[in-house]
Amino acid sequence: MNANGSERGNWTKLGFIFAATGSAIGLGNIWKFPYITYENNGGAFVLVYLICIAAIGLPIMIAEMILGRKSQRNAVGAFKAVGGGKWKIVGGLGVITGFVLLSYYSVVAGWTLEYFIKSVTGAFDGMDESEVGKLFGDFLKNPVKQISWHAVFMGLTIIIVAGGIVKGIQRITKILMPVLFIIMAILLIQSVFSEGFGQALTFLFRPNFSELTLGSVLEAVGHSFFTLSLGMGAIITYGSYMTDKDSIPKSAIIVCGLDTFVALMACMIIYPIIFTFKISPESMTKSAGILFSTLPIHFLNMPGGFLFGPLFFILVAFAALTSTISLLEVVVAYFIDELGWRRVQATIGLGIVIFVLGIFSALSNGAVPALSSFNLIGKSSTAGFFNTLDYLVSNWLLPVGGFFIAVFVGWRLQVAVKDEEYYKGEKTFLNYRAWNFLIKFVAPVAVAIIIIAVIFGREF
Ligand code: TRP
Asked: What is the architecture, at CATH level 2, of domain 13-455?
């Protein structure tokens, strides 16, 4: 029961897996991972990333799930319910992070809808690479389109979250996630037969450690938080609707495994195109570049390209939607549990506030000069309101949140609580002692290092 006396609801079997996998798999996997892996020269970076997922991401995910299921509360309430006292500030930070992250994430998510429609209606037919690039540039500068697609995406997110856990989020993720995997499989089959596939595999899986820098290691740590939706209570919140029938470590292993699998698959779909068409590395590293300004044209050049373009963009849109609903749920669950708001009112009201905040990001990629040149941090990669928020969230808010969650669960939470939650449901190969070691020592130390490195400008 909540403060307003209503039922919170619970996932049915597999419901948590669908929802949490949906939250994890998103723009982080399909856009950001292929791009940062390319920038960091593949191979060795991929290996370091896999180690980060297993040694830092997985234990923190288990920690968030324990906090959520034990307390049956939102990110703030969870700390209060298990005797966390002041630690509830960590949850509060998470709710604020959810607000900010969703506001700009929805903007890029909206672009995927425009590109889906463009590729269906054949807008890229007959264009060359520079024309598609220009089309993207013009789109970014168009304030009406930027705000409208952001509004549409927030609208979809609000409708689903307003439906609640069972009738909204679970119902939609149970459909979208299988569809997402089917589309991926189709795109992958096509890519296996393309010329550049072998080269893509070599790039991804042959480590060359001489190319690995400390900066890449730190980037891998930061990205493992983002991609697994950790550090801001999203998994605490989703975990709070879990029943005792599910095994926490087993569910976490499945979610981490699927998320990693999709990130690697996205590379295997995107890289052969890059290698086949010999796309210049510069266009890869122009952040949003690859997805929106280079890929559309190359899909068209492939056999059956009229089909693969739309399939690809709808895939990214679905992946983004199952992530935006988890972000909104973090915020909404807090207002329902702690302040007694009703779900529908909370979802619409907060969704609108987030939409309004997102307008600043929507207009900061070229539409409004003052917002586009805004640069609080002063790095070239943080130019613009949008990039500033992403920098703050990815490099500060998520790692700091993750650090405190690891310390709280590792050192403060009663051993009896951890032990009991860990072993409910089936057993898994990752035993309690191994996890306990990771959450007490490995994860906090590694995250502390990244935070210190960010403070020192990632140079030492
Ligand atoms: N994990 C998502 C992605 O990879 C983004 C995301 C959704 C997220 N919910 C989150 C990131 C909560 C951090 C925290 O795109």
From this structure: Up-down Bundle (1.20)
Query: 């290698």: which residue's tokens?
Result: 275
Q: Name the DSSP letter for residue 408.
A: I
Place of tokens 């500060």: 396
CA nearest to 365, candidates 133, 157, 104, 185 = 104
Tens-digit pLDDT profile for residues 153-166? 999 999 999 999 99
SS3 for 65-78 is HHHHHHHCCCHHHH
> Rounded to whole angstroms, what are the CA distances from 54 to 27, 228, 429?
21, 11, 13
Residue 26 DSSP code? S
CB-ligand 1 contact for 29 (6 Å cutoff)? yes
* Mutual angle of helices 305-339 and 88-120, in 10-degree steps: 150
Residue with tokens 């009738």: 167
**Is the predicted pLDDT of residue 151 greater than 60, yes or no?**
yes
Q: Which pair of structure tokens corresponds to residue 440?
A: 């007490």
Please state, as a whole number, how many other Cβ atoms lie within 10 Å of the Cβ of residue 377: 13
SS3 358: helix
Map out the domains of the chain as residue ranges: 13-455
Nearest ligand 1 atom to alpha carbon 29: 4
Ligand 1 site, residue 26, Cβ cutoff 6 A: yes
Residues in the chain: 460
Q: Is the CB of 322 under 6 A from ligand 1?
A: no
Place of tokens 């009896």: 416
Containing H/E element for 38?
helix 33-39
pLDDT at 101 over 50: yes
C-alpha 230 to ligand 1 mean position (Å): 7
**Is the model more confident about 354 or about 371?**
354
CA of 330 to the centre of ligand 1 (A): 11
* Residue 216 beta carbon below 6 angstroms from any ligand 1 atom: no
The pTM of the full predicted model, rounded to 2 decimals, is 0.94
* Type of residue found at 52: C
**Within 10 A of 197 (CB to CB), how many other CB atoms are there?**
19
Contact 235, 61 (CB under 8 A): yes
Q: Is the pLDDT of residue 288 over 70?
A: no
pLDDT, position 459: 45
In this prediction, residues 190-200 reach a mean pLDDT of 89
